[in-house]
Amino acid sequence: MSRGIDYGRLMHRAMRGLIQEVLEGVRENGLPGDHHFFITFDTAHPDAELADWLSDRYPGEMTVVMQHWFDDLDVSDEGFAVTLNFGDAPERLYIPYDAIKTFVDPSVEFGLRFESQDAGDEDDEDEDDDTPPDGPGGKKPETKPAHRDAEVVSLDRFRK
Predict the structure, then answer these.
(1) Closest Cα partner for 90 from 115, 60, 64?
(2) Do 70 and 86 contact (CB within 8 A), yes or no?
(3) Backbone phi, then psi, for 10, in 5-degree steps?
(4) Smallest Cα–Cα separation from 20: which of 63, 67, 108, 79?
(5) Looking at the DSSP assignment, which residues form a beta bridge with residue 95?
(6) How would residue 117 be classed by pLDDT, with cut points 50, 70 and 90?
(7) pLDDT averaged over the chain?
(8) DSSP secondary-structure letter at 45?
(9) C-alpha–C-alpha distance, residues 46 and 37, integer Å
(10) What is the pTM of this model?
């Protein structure tokens, strides 16, 4: 039986859906105005695909920028693939949404930070364990800002 509603996991799924929708819009229409993205992801994620020299150089995490030059953006339900330029060397990357640690659009001071999720967390829901988790998804809540220059945006200012 379920221990309760896992709001942390539900929020992560919703935030990843938001990233997917934003990237689909960029794929169809390009980046509007001054929008650009800093995307930090786990390079050791089992489904992430990147050149060996990039994973050797960034063994834990890497931040990519989608701004002036990117090509062949492909967006799926599980992640996205894009070709980026690394010092005049185009490289194809595949980044699963589950590997994303932060997604920031500094042009509008928007940022998302994902708490780390253990690969076995989904299986843990089926176990009969009465030990309460420390926070959403069984992890202690993350309190660091996604970007130092970003601010927390109240959703109330977007309501009509």
Answers:
(1) 64
(2) no
(3) -65, -40
(4) 79
(5) 80
(6) low
(7) 77
(8) -
(9) 23
(10) 0.69
- Only one residue has tokens 């920031």, namely 104
Residue 93's DSSP bridge partners are 82
CB 19 within 8 Å of CB 97:
yes
The C-alpha atoms of residue 160 and residue 157 are separated, in whole angstroms, by 8
- Strand, helix or coil for residue 90: strand
Residue 160, amino acid: K
Q: How far apart are CA 58 and CA 43, in angstroms?
A: 7
Q: Collect all residues with Cβ–Cβ distance below 8 Å to 59 and sequence separation of at least 6.
A: 43, 44
pLDDT at 49 over 80: yes
Short-list 12, 19, 18, CA closest to 122: 12
